[in-house]
Amino acid sequence: xxxxxxxxxxxxxxxxxxxxxxxxxxxxxxxxxxxxxxxxxxxxxxxxxxxxxxxxxxxxxxxxxxxxxxxxxxxxxxxxxxxxxxxxxxxxxxxxxxxxxxxxxxxxxxxxxxxxxxxxxxxxxxxxxxxxxxxxxxxxxxxxxxxxxxxxxxxxxxxxxxxxxxxxxxxxxxxxxxxxxxxxxxxxxxxxxxxxxxxxxxxxxxxxxxxxxxxxxxxxxxxxxxxxxxxxxxxxxxxxxxxxxxxxxxxxxxxxxxxxxxxxxxxxxxxxxxxxxxxxxxxx
Length: 284
Description:
Elements: E1 6-8, E2 14-16, E3 20-22, E4 28-30, E5 36-46, E6 49-56, H1 60-88, H2 110-124, H3 126-132, E7 136-139, H4 146-159, E8 164-167, H5 169-178, H6 188-197, E9 200-203, H7 215-234, E10 238-242, H8 246-254, H9 256-265, E11 268-271, H10 277-283
Parallel strand pairs: 7-10, 7-11, 8-9, 9-10
Antiparallel strand pairs: 1-2, 3-4, 4-5, 5-6
Helix pairs in contact: 2-4, 6-7, 7-9, 8-9
């Protein structure tokens, strides 16, 4: 019989002569690892009657193949879940590739390195941070890398399959206004349900909103309070970035109740200083 052909031993067991060989023990062996791939057993069908039957055995090569197949299946499943989390995160394309490992050398000021180390530690202990509801307040001047670092943190969390919403109060308020339209695809309760339940909420650039005395400004302040309060009551981590300190944010008119809740929610507070990287890139 030619090499490479399939030989049928029974209705349920076949062997490939290119991969398997008949050993001196009368059993079939893997040509690569030498282990048994098919063995013959004797079965008693009725009293006094016996017959032989072939059964398939898994050799080391089969075990390795099955292990790799399982790992690939798990990897595909994880990748699909991460992509779904990423799709729902509202993370824009600009920061889709942001990672701690991609920070450029020219950005590594002392303040930047300290902030980076704290955020990396936060990422490595994400489950503990989630359980404790530990939030972050990161502030500093425009262009020093706040959004990039928080986007890197968000991406790292999503890679670990934590749910993330990366937005701003202004963008969320825009979504709420969109629910007023007749053809709206979501309602306000659905938006707030997402805010309450997502594991890690990122609110970028807080403090750019108007908190004056006009009717629309009052609405902004009220909805900002509802948003922060919903997160406060859910006891889940919220990560804020701002151009101003929490004290300056309070002075701007965000409201004492909101400021107090943010202060209680963000036990990690970081000031990031440095040159305006955007301005420097534009000048080159």
